[in-house]
Write a structure and sequence with these properties.
By secondary structure, the chain is mostly beta strands. It is built from 1 helix and 29 strands. Helices cover about 5% and strands about 50% of the residues. Keywords: Signal.
């Protein structure tokens, strides 16, 4: 009991990962509004309200945020706003590298060799990443502080997926934070807390989390996956139709990807009710395969989702509304080559 109370003091969401999942009924298969994800001719709306990057030349990026622009050079894979600058992740021939850069694009003093992926706290106050041999690192306090979390088991590369808490240094005013990490070597995941505790989760792979909600894959085969959505210690619902992505900023909806990831990228996207799993709205592929593929899906606000799309050899950032609206947030453009994605949304 003392162990559970300790974890609760660090991050209430961590309780969801201890013990076995409770029995939960599958989601209701009711019909929801659906439309083809055709982004070939849309009106143009406002620029994204969150940070994004556009490729302007060979390994040259312009990072946009409401407060201004930053230029950066490198093979950019992910970015997350932090203080006056960004935590960025790049690739080299042999590794992934993570660092902080300032508003002028200048790199901070340290660079870490890590696994892919950045985990961002709900309010953006903390960014976590994972390296080899179980290392987990968090940057917080407007990039003024770097903290090492207790190591998770294993020797291979891992990926940080979820971080709870905005201030990871425990004090009289902070309960610290917890980070959920997926293993690349094995189908398992872990939670590590600033309180010093490390536990294996009930999920094969954690997919998403926000507040006391946590979702992830519980079963996987050559034909698909099954996932569960948990709140606290209770499994609220399960599905073998979707994998989970971003949870909305007000904890009302979760994005559902296809249960089996294959090919260039997904072509269908579901918005699911977070509490029941019911489909609220869906974007689907047309029968001729001419509609869009999407990447980097993230909630912009409670009513809109941003996605990077690819259709007709052009890339765009498209705003999808729960009311069925669709518009360009960044107008379509071609890439320098077929292997380059020229637009990137910030991690959230």
């Amino acid at each position: 009991m003392k162990r559970l109370v300790s974890i609760l003091a660090v991050a209430p969401l961590a309780l969801a990962l201890l013990g076995q999942p409770s029995t939960a009924a599958p989601v209701d298969e009711r019909v929801a509004p659906r439309q083809v994800l055709d982004v070939s001719d849309l009106p143009t709306g406002e620029p994204p309200a969150i940070a994004y990057a556009e490729l302007t030349g060979r390994n040259r990026w312009k990072i946009h945020r409401p407060s201004g622009q930053t230029t950066f050079r490198g093979k950019l894979l992910e970015l997350a706003p932090m203080g006056s600058g960004f935590v960025v992740q790049t690739s080299t021939r042999t590794a992934y590298e993570t660092r902080w850069i300032g508003a002028d694009g200048a790199s901070g003093a340290r660079t870490w060799r890590t696994g892919p992926g950045l985990a961002v706290s709900p309010k953006g106050g903390a960014v976590a990443f994972a390296g080899a041999r179980g290392r987990v690192t968090v940057i917080d306090s407007d990039a003024d502080r770097v903290l090492r979390m207790p190591r998770v088991p294993g020797r291979g590369l891992n990926s940080a997926v979820v971080v709870s808490g905005e201030d990871c240094k425990e004090s009289a005013t902070s309960n610290g934070c917890a980070v959920w990490v997926n293993s690349h070597r094995r189908s398992r995941s872990w939670v590590t807390s600033s309180h010093g505790l490390v536990d294996r989760t009930r999920f094969r792979q954690v997919s998403t989390g926000r507040g006391r909600w946590l979702g992830g894959i519980t079963e996987a085969s050559d034909t698909g996956t099954c996932s569960a959505m948990v709140r606290g210690q209770r499994t609220r619902w399960t599905t073998c139709r979707n994998r989970f992505s971003d949870i909305s900023t007000v904890n009302e909806h979760v994005l559902g990807l296809p249960a089996y990831g294959d090919g260039f990228g997904p072509t269908t996207l579901d918005v699911l009710d977070l509490r029941s799993g019911d489909r609220v709205r869906s974007w689907v592929a047309d029968r001729k395969g001419r509609s869009a593929t999407y990447f980097g899906e993230i909630w912009e606000d409670p009513e809109h989702v941003l996605v990077v799309t690819f259709q007709d050899d052009k890339w765009a950032i498209v705003r999808l509304g729960l009311d069925g609206s669709m518009e360009y947030a960044v107008v379509p453009r071609t890439a320098a080559d077929e292997f380059s994605m020229p637009l990137l949304l910030a991690a959230g």
